[in-house]
Design goal:
The complex is a heterodimer of chains A (113) and B (116). Chain A has 113 residues and is mostly beta strands. Chain A is built from no helices and eleven strands. In chain A, the strands form two sheets. In chain A, strands 2, 4, 5, 9, 10 and 11 form a six-stranded mixed β-sheet that branches. Classes of the chains: A mainly beta (113), B mainly beta (116).
Chain lengths: 113, 116
């Protein structure tokens, strides 16, 4: 049972435009959410996170939005740059009793110059 | 710090052979995680350790998989016997465990395993 879902396996966006990556979750016990970025032949690297008590967190060109009632979060990248081309993973965790993160299947973002 | 170090980077083995993947976490991190990446399931948690003790191994697919952490600076993931369906990229990650959601885990570069 996939508790964190990324329904779009791939996304192509023109350079300079906004990229929006989406993630849905089913477990209402999740307390925090993270986005990771992964380049080929490398491990995922942390990008940005958000606590469930917030609905928005911003870091430079990256903004994560959380809609708890819809169990949905999204990552906005503005403006998109060629170096943003990578696989993006959404992850979720809980403060109750464990440190593990549950990841989605990933979305491959391609920025078109 | 050199980050999380995994070896080997690539492993090709024949079905039925034993495979051992290795990981050195970041010094001072007290949590270590083993994940497997597949197209169908994304990043799937296999097992994680806290202070060298296995905490949750519910993701280990079957008895052919085993993991150990004999000390704070080393962990192994062993598959015996290996099967073609084990082919995947295996990642090790570590964290300081201080509810590290603000900064997430640090992942190694992974081991790409191919079982033929």
């Amino acid at each position: 049972d996939q508790q964190v879902k990324q329904n779009s396996p791939s996304l192509s966006v023109q350079e300079g435009r906004i990229s929006i990556l989406n993630c849905d979750y089913t477990n209402s016990m999740f307390d925090y959410f993270l986005w990771y970025k992964k380049y080929p032949a490398e491990g995922p690297t942390f990008l940005i996170s958000i606590s469930s008590i917030k609905d928005k967190n911003e870091d430079g060109r990256f903004t994560v939005f959380l809609n708890k009632s819809a169990k949905h979060l999204s990552l906005h990248i503005v403006p998109s740059q060629p170096g943003d081309s990578a696989v993006y993973f959404c992850a979720a965790g809980s403060n109750f009793g464990n440190e593990k993160l549950t990841f989605g299947t990933g979305t491959r973002l391609t920025i078109i110059p | 710090d050199a980050g999380v170090i995994q070896s080997p980077r690539h492993e090709v083995t024949e079905m039925g052979q034993e495979v051992t993947l290795r990981c050195k976490p970041i010094s001072g991190h007290d949590y270590l995680f083993w994940y497997r990446q597949t197209m169908m399931r994304g990043l799937e948690l296999l097992i994680y350790f806290n202070n060298n003790v296995p905490i949750d191994d519910s993701g280990m697919p079957e008895d052919r998989f085993s993991a150990k952490m004999p000390n704070a600076s080393f962990s192994t993931l062993k598959i015996q016997p290996s099967e073609p369906r084990d082919s995947a990229v295996y990642f090790c990650a570590s964290s300081s465990g201080t509810r590290g959601w603000r900064t997430g885990y640090t992942f190694g570069s992974g081991t790409r395993l191919t079982v033929v």
